[in-house]
Amino acid sequence: xxxxxxxxxxxxxxxxxxxxxxxxxxxxxxxxxxxxxxxxxxxxxxxxxxxxxxxxxxxxxxxxxxxxxxxxxxxxxxxxxxxxxxxxxxxxxxxxxxxxxxxxxxxxxxxxxxxxxxxxxxxxxxxxxxxxxxxxxxxxxxxxxxxxxxxxxxxxxxxxxxxxxxxxxxxxxxxxxxxxxxxxxxxxxxxxxxxxxxxxxxxxxxxxxxxxxxxxxxxxxxxxxxxxxxxxxxxxxxxxxxxxxxxxxxxxxxxxxxxxxxxxxxxxxxxxxxxxxxxxxxxxxxxxxxxxxxxxxxxxxxxxxxxxxxxxxxxxxxxxxxxxxxxxxxxxxxxxxxxxxxxxxxxxxxxxxxxxxxxxxxxxxxxxxxxxxxxxxxxxxxxxxxxxxxxxxxxxxxxxxxxxxxxxxxxxxxx
Length: 415
Ligand code: PMP
Known about the structure:
By secondary structure, the chain is of the alpha/beta class. Helices cover 34% and strands 16% of the residues. It folds into two domains: 13-39 and 318-413, Aspartate Aminotransferase, domain 1, CATH 3.90.1150; 58-316, Aspartate Aminotransferase, domain 2 (3-Layer(aba) Sandwich). The chain has helices at residues 43-46, 55-67, 79-90, 105-122, 143-148, 177-186, 210-222, 275-278, 301-316, 319-334, 365-374, 396-413, and strands at residues 22-26, 29-32, 37-40, 97-102, 130-132, 190-195, 199-200, 206-207, 226-230, 254-257, 269-274, 343-349, 352-357, 377-378, 385-388. It has a six-stranded mixed β-sheet, sandwiched between helices. A four-stranded mixed β-sheet has the order 1-2-3-14. A three-stranded antiparallel β-sheet has the order 12-13-15, covered by helices on one side.
């Protein structure tokens, strides 16, 4: 069969090889059409925190498909979306919140950006229209999300149509003061700041401190700037707490979530908004402040059923706590790699373990990835970085095996 897919993030040169054709998933494993088995070391684009084929989520999806598979949420509602909105609000530090639902992470981010801009319009501060992010931050591939993220080689063709009025520097040394300067300088135009909490995933798992995040939240509040926390990649236990922002003890104005919300079982995302903001979207006054924004699949009943099942499992099986315990073991098992000559740095945050190799290893990365693949490990290196971000349900032995395979491969290719 000819491949007619316009693949995301795939070079044409990669298409010259036969692409693995994955036909089944079970637990932490994926199986291809030739019967080979692979450990899903990246949780399928960071989404599948519970691995694949969890019977409780599968059943929830199957049951819901036969009950009500779609419902408009504009001026209508249904039980699953009502329950989920209530549940998400209860997961926040302060539960007075309403949720906008969407499908992908970037659609939740788009909603957050538009809500921030319209909030200031609603309260007669229409000059506050800038939503800025952090240098090297990433919030999705739609144009609004690109505008709040970094522009690198991937995004060059869109440079002229994305707006980057300012950005916060990446706090490599944890220093908040340069960011404070940017916020204070532009506070008159700033509607919101959006950041990935504690870890810039797509930039190569760049980690910064919870203390920086706390100072950022305080500074935004002091300067009348909304704070949007993008938990799409980090949410639901990846960092050792339910949300990464929980490490900083803050109460963000808006929280975007996706991926882990349904543990990767259905495309569903959400932006959870504080009621102080939500309440301004009224048509009671002289001005109609209704949020004229929505997606066909907003609050999709099957998506919501998957999310409710995933949230139950996270709680019932103590997934977050278990992940936090596992993270400590993963770190101990990975630490010996720091001794290897070709390793530049190791980084850890919860169930994220990064081995950054020295730049001269670049020509070897594709071969190392292929070798690991042939050994049954599905890694997706970013630049010269190999990272482990496995399903949080991975067992000790499976995780140890993955760490060992990575170390052996690095030693073999970079002696
Ligand atoms: N925000 C962050 C932090 C992400 O990592 C991603 C995707 N990797 C997105 C947003 C976009 O999510 P999606 O790909 O589901 O649109």
